[in-house]
User: What shape does this take?
Amino acid sequence: MRIKNARFVVSNSRVAQCPNTALPEFAFIGRSNVGKSSLINMLTNRKRLAKTSGKPGKTQLINHFLINESWHLVDLPGYGYARVSKKDKKEFQQYIRDYFNERKQLVNAFVLIDIRLDPQPIDLAFMEWMGTQQIPFSIIFTKADKLSARTIEPTVTKYLNTLLEDAWEEAPLHFVTSSTSRIGQDAVLAYIEKLL
Ligand code: GTP
Ligand code: MG
Assistant: This one.
């Protein structure tokens, strides 16, 4: 898919205020600092469409972007941001749950995972919650440029095996990406196009 145009529409803290259109949408979610906003910029070939930051907690709202005048891409705040108490670290914010439970336009969510990290309890809990809510999602491994090419595949396999041992019968569809080296752009866009 070619991205001909991409523009910011609106930011909201509540799902009820999100754009009232029937356009299909795709959401990007994951821990704070995993690279959601950077990935959105990479996918759309825009440098500053979504705001990025070296400090976690940059994206605080539900942000809608209109792509090719025909679908929405949604940048969500990270979960597991360390400013909350230790107990709450394993929780994800209520409005993230509300978004996924209520947003009928959602076609697929992409759960972003930092490829360098061992499986984190909060990510496993989040994917399990998505499964119980029957919300379709795929995994996007981010920051693949931080690993050597030959360690990418075994790292991904190890991660997916953890999911299979944990709660999953089948590993979710997954993509390997880097916002700096741009790997994965074609594969993710082709998948979105297929679902549209
Ligand atoms: P929040 O909005 O705080 O939840 O974070 P986010 O998930 O949107 O992350 P963001 O895109 O702001 O990126 C966080 C940091 O990771 C920034 O310093 C980025 O430059 C860096 N980063 C993101 N993607 C990549 C990548 O593919 N490779 C490398 N090397 N760095 C990346
Ligand atoms: Mg962000």
About this structure: Residues 36-37, 58-59, 75 surround magnesium ion (ligand 2) (CB under 6 Å). The CA atoms of residues 91 and 141 lie 21 Å apart.
